[in-house]
Amino acid sequence: MSLDITNNGKSEYLIAVSGDQIPSEITASKELQTYIAKSTGATLPIVNESDIAPNAPAILVGHTVFAKSAGLVPGGEEQWIIKTVGNRLVLTGGRPRGTLYAVYHFLEDHLGVRWWTIWDETVPSHSSLSIEDIDRSGAPGFAYRDIYDAEVPWPKEFYARNRVNGHFSFVPWEYGGTIQYGLPRHVHTFDNYFHPDKYFDIHPEYFSLSKGERIRNGQLCLTNKDVFREWISKMKEYIKTSYAEADSKGEPRPVFFSISQNDWEGSCECNCCKAIYEKENHSGLSLMFVNAVAAEIEKAYPEVLIDTLAYWFYEEAPNTVKPRDNVRIRVCDIGEDIMHSITHDNNKHGLRRLGDWSKITKHTNIWKYGVIYSPNLPIPSQLDYAEDVKAYKTNGVEGVFIELENIMTTDMWEMKAWMLAKLYEDPYADSETLVNDFTNGYYGPAGLYIREYLNAIHDALQKTPSYINFGGTASKYSYITYDLVRTCDAIFDKAEAAVSGDEALLDRVQMARTSLDRAICYRTKDLVNEYENSGSKGDFGLSVEVSSKRVSSILFKMAEKRFGNMKKYASDAYDQAGVLEMVSSLPVSVPLPEQFASLPKDSVFDFSPKDFRLVGPIVVKDPEADFGAAAKLDYIMSGPDAAKFIVSETEGMPMGLCNVSEHVFGETRYITQEDIKPGYNYYKLNKAKFHPSEYFNMFWDWTLQLDLTPTMNEDLEQEYEIYASIKFEGPLFLNGEPANTNGIYVERIIVVRV
Predict the structure, then answer these.
(1) What is the pTM of this model?
(2) For residue 710, what is the DSSP state?
(3) Which residue range is the domain that position 508 belongs to?
(4) Please, which pLDDT band fits residue 605 given cuts at 50, 70 and 90?
(5) Is residue 249 part of a domain?
(6) Quick one: which of 634, 375, 716 has its CA closest to 516?
(7) I want to staple 728 with a disulfide (CB 3.0 to 4.6 A). Which of 88, 89, 168, 733 is the partner?
(8) Domain's final residue, options 368, 399, 432
């Protein structure tokens, strides 16, 4: 039987709701009314079910008497049902989100509505809306689904409409709410419970013992009985407060409460702790503490899940310790190769660790790294997402969380967020269908060129060995060759031409193009060398000036369009646009300093600020710098973390080696006051051997990094020296000018094969 819902902007149908709606079901009926009106021009009245005639044509939304009489009683919180019964359509679901999901599925699957991004939607026009018999139901494939966008407080309807329910979607209660973490926060909570500013001086025994001394900025001593007792007391207070806050708002109470180590090293080496992790490794030590707390919390709050991480030096599963049933493990592969699926050979160790944890854990969850913080070059990872989520399901994962911040500068953030939402709901959705749906719907006539571009990048990535984690620098993108860039640049020219008459579509295409333009800007030296070494002649065909101006222009435009006066939420876009404008004016190369000029050409590697990976420092113009610019760290002199940022006669600014895949630090040097000289000077790191995935890092918390892969040969016994050209400016530093602000500048890094 066909139901004629609307015809030429008119309708006999009503939207009938139950008398005991919860807020999300009120929203569901309004969303249905709004989008049917947008699509057909007909506004269906919303009425109480009790006010309609027995056989009146109606769309029944929520837990109506009619739905129950038809046997349509959904279970769980998110099961949804769409079913035609006679001349009526039933949209119902579990509470709190199931009915909303039924409405959204109906609008998507039967009207063709799409919510592409936070700012963009498509609502097809229907002169009439008729539907055939429908009998569908479903529930999301993962119980917890989260996309971390860096907590920007924009409207969160996009996440609700695409069935994302995690803590950081911040979906309001009237849109079904989220599955929440309770106080104090969702991760790295050791400092929240026992901050060293409050506890270290009076209870140093609470903190890690390292080399015979207790350390402020390490972890906690997890075998200390007082730490255990106080933790339980504090956690109960956090639970009590979190519940009270939720109750006062009429919202669901938080489900998860976190016990997780600080985001740095410094595990306790006291005899008790050491004895445990030598037997069970570091995760065993952590998990024994978590289990003990969870056992006590369960007595008072059996509904709570204690959340902890399998991360960094405690990624590996314990030898014999198993998580309690009220413990939730979030597996984080910090060395994950973001360029490939979790099933790729590059990620075999991460997949094994996931399997090891899933075998012993009732509640296994994923913390995935979906972003490379800088320089955001082409990363076609959305073509591998389907393979990822299938592997998660195979390993019993019940919750997924992805770091996908920097939404204005992360490569094709819009497409990635949408595809992730779809696959998190349906892990077995067809990837090609999703790709076609998004590219055709979001980019219009340019969609086929966007797919051609993505496939070209993805194919090149499969043919060229590469391994790039979230700290990847431009030199890592070895698959981005001169020929590939020229090919993709031409593809984007066609894409822009295809939508030249539509400003909105052209803006979307140019935003997608920013990653390729960044590749031209940041890999100029490599592309020029490749071009020249191949013996090519004629026009180089690529322009840093054109690319940098194109990126800057669209970033400025879209930041203003999307955020208006809320500029702080588009700071990554403004910062990158400014840096790219500056980069376009930097020379590709400058003469080597005299001390390096006589060395063999193939033994000296010269890096400018555009080769650095920066998280915090910014690139600024500096006429004293060889390249005319430098990476600047504004010196932090106050606040709770000031103790970390010290340059004195005994403590210094760190620079050294870090191996991401092995999770170890190598040769390190601290520059103290007595080392500092006026202006730029080269500060040397002693001879060291490099290994795959090695980085040179500077500043506290590794906020300046340089990938060392381009300097390496196949000889793992080869030794290298690193020279960083640094200027310490301001009255805080020896010989600093009193009139200048305190800052540390890095203008050049030179690596020499010994």
Answers:
(1) 0.87
(2) G
(3) 448-583
(4) very high
(5) yes
(6) 375
(7) 733
(8) 432
